[in-house]
Each structure stands twice: as structure tokens, then as C-alpha cells.
Amino acid sequence: MSLSHSGHQPAHLTALRIKYMHDIRTETDSLGFVDVPAEALYGAQTARAVTNFPISGLKASPFLIRALAMVKLAAAEANTELELITEEQGRAIAQAAQEVLDGQHHEHFVVDVFQAGAGVSLHMNTNEVLANRASQILGEPLGSYRKIHPNDHVNYGQSTNDVFPTAMRLSALLALEGLYPVLTSLASSFVAKAEEFRDVLTAGRTHMQDAVPITLGQEFDAYAAAVREAAASIRRNAVTLCPLGLGGSAVGTGLNTHPAYREKAVMKLSRISGFELHPAYDLRYAMQSCAPMADVSGALRGLALEMIRISNDLRLMSSGPNTGFNEIHLPSLQPGSSIMPGKVNPVLAELTAMVGFQVVGNDTTVAMAVQAGQLELNVMMPAMAHATLESIVILTNTLRELDVNCIRGITANRERNAFYAASTVALATALNPYIGYQKAAELVKESVATGRPIVTLAREKNFLSSEQMAEILDPRKMTEPRVKET
Question: In terms of CB atoms within 10 Å, which end of the chain has fewer, N or C?
Fold first, then answer.
């Protein structure tokens, strides 16, 4: 914790500070003197933020840190070319930013995810880390800021108000790059199981009641389609993250920026990141509105809802082994009870549902934050950035585990499925075109009352010939369209 030099301190704190003087350095900001850990790359404003916001213990996502480094690298290159900072300063800042981009110095990004509005604290944390590392590169001591200043050089022509929205959007794009291949793989695993179970007949259920036959393969094909559609929705909505307000400065007017800076900086950021980024057609809009974050978070919510549904299906289908459906077997990953021997639970399906609930909650956070922007700036960005990135990360990790350690190892209980396919009273549905809905309904009632199979009752009543009955009531032929035979 930093100790401000403004105001009096108890004697024991003063003694403690003097005792450990070799472990700290003293910096100044616009509010006064601040003690900073001697070897820290961050500076006074970051130290204040650490003291002011001891909220969650959670630090910025590596994706957001990398995105901020990319923005600063692009800005340094643009400002150097425009001769707004010297080549020496530009090279040093660029080298420092590249090091952060490569994964170095992340331990110096110490501001809590719940912090000052608009991300000012994390932004200054970034400026100070890069300024101090660039100073080191130029042979200057930490905290001197003689050759490289956090505000005057690292942040030249920039504001938290255009940097943080840009980095927030870019961080989501970066994080999504890890989710897409996981979704592709998960869909492929569902397809592989669909092929494996193509000939496994079972009973469909609607309203949790008997419905007409379906194959287990068809059910798994539908799961693959759900994952693919959710992935496509995420990709479509991610495109809205690409227009950027970088260059808008404080309120979107571009104050203190070079006329060519906006286009040049975004062009360089596009090259650095590998994404097709471009300046927003209206910088005020890009600063005021965070609707693209709501779009992406909403698409993630859609994926979460689908995976909650599918995971619940898997839990239901694997329920048992003796008193549940027992249609499929999920891989056994760990003992399931501290008291019941031999019990095994569907742990990854359960995990998937719980993670889905968290993503739905995160989307509510994003929605509330997005609508809370006032006038020229939405200051709730740290909350929406944290929530969106957490959703992407936990979905990525969870669905990878679900795919590799659950879906790929599923096996079918063929005997139980065959029993269900033959036993569903909805077999009578196939007779509708031949004997009418009313007679078919009477068959169902009698079957439920007596426990006798639909096929047996239908044959006894001689509604149709034996050959017709065999053809019409073949459960396998009920799993695809069929024209009434005359």
C-alpha cells in the first residue's frame, strides 16, 4: 500500500516507512507525493488505485492487457511517424509495448477489475508501466520520467476515453479467437457421435412425455447444429467490434490529435492485431455507445443458453443407471458421493450448466453497464470488459473440457433405447393418416391403461392388414418423412 506524504502519519507508520525506505521510491502526481514499491514498473497513479480499490483481488485479463499494449504500440508508431514524439522515445515505447504484448511485465498490472469509471486507473497503470520500462531501456531510473513521461509521451494524443473503448473491443476479439476452434471441435464431436448413433432408435419426448421415435444420431446432429448456429451468431456480432473510436481523444472531437493520427493509428493497430479494424464513421458514437459489447455478450448468452439446455439433456439421458433413462453412458471422471459407494455423477454436464448460468449473469451486467452511459462517455466500461472477457474465457475452457472429456467418450445403451422406441405410445401417430386421429387416440388410452403395446392392440383390432401394419408401425421408418401409402 502506498503512503501519501500529504497529512500526518502515526509514529509507528513513519518508523516503518523509514525502516523500509530501500524498498520504496517516492513519486508525485497532481495530488501530491506517493510511495511506490522500488522495483515496480507502475507509478503514483497506479499505487493510488491499488489503495483506493481493494475490491475483488481480480486483476485485468491478459487479453485486455495485450489489447492495451497493442493500442500503445500503434499510437507510438503513428506519433513517431508524425514527428510528435522523437524517434528515440517512439522506439523505446514501442519496445516496451511489444514486451507486454509478448507476455512480459503483466505482474505490474495491479489495478483491480472493479475500479474508477471508464478504466482510467488501468489505463494509467498501462501508461506508467510502459513509461518506466521505456525509461529503463533508455538507461533512466524508474520513476524519473525525464525522457519518457506516462502522459506526455506514452499517452500523446490519447485519452482513456478513446483508448479504453478501443482496447475493450480489441480484447474481446482476441479472446474470441480461442473460443472459435473450441466450438468447431465441439460441433464436430457431436457430428461424430451422430454418425456412431445413426442406427440407435429411441423414443422422442415432448413435454417430457412419449413422442414418436427418433434416432439417437438425429438428436446429436441437432446438438451440433445448435453449437454451429451459436458460433455463427458470435462471429456476426463480433464484426460490430471492429469500428473504433481511437483518435477521438476526450469527447470524440479529436482534441490534441494530429489530423492524420486517427487513420494512421487504426491502420497500424489493424496490422499489429491481425483484425480488419477501421475508424468508426462517427467518433462521438463510438465513445458514447458500447452497443457492440452488448451484441457480443448477448451472443455469448445465446451460446450459454444452448449449452445449458444440451447439458441438461445429457444429464437426463444418462440418468440412472437403474432408476433413470439410462440411454447413454457418460465417461466416469470421479466418484460422485461422499456417502454412496460407486455413485458417479455427470460432472462436466453439471459444470457446463453452472458456467452457463454465470455467463447469463455476466450478460445482465453488460446490459446494465451498456445502458448506463451518459452524454459523451460510458464510464461503466471496466465492468462490461471484465464480464465479457470472463464469459469468453470460462466458456472456452468449459466447452473444451466437455468436448474432450465427455462428448467424445459417450456410449449408447442400445438395448434400453430399442425398448423405448418400441414402447412409446406415440407409435399410434403413424396410424393417423389411415385410421384417423380419434381411433389412434383410443389406442393410446387403451395401451396406457392396460400396459399392452400399441402394435399388439392395433393388430388385434384389424384396422389394416398385417403387411400394412408392419410397414406403417416400423419405428425406423418413422424417423423420416413418408408419404401415405394407398
Answer: C
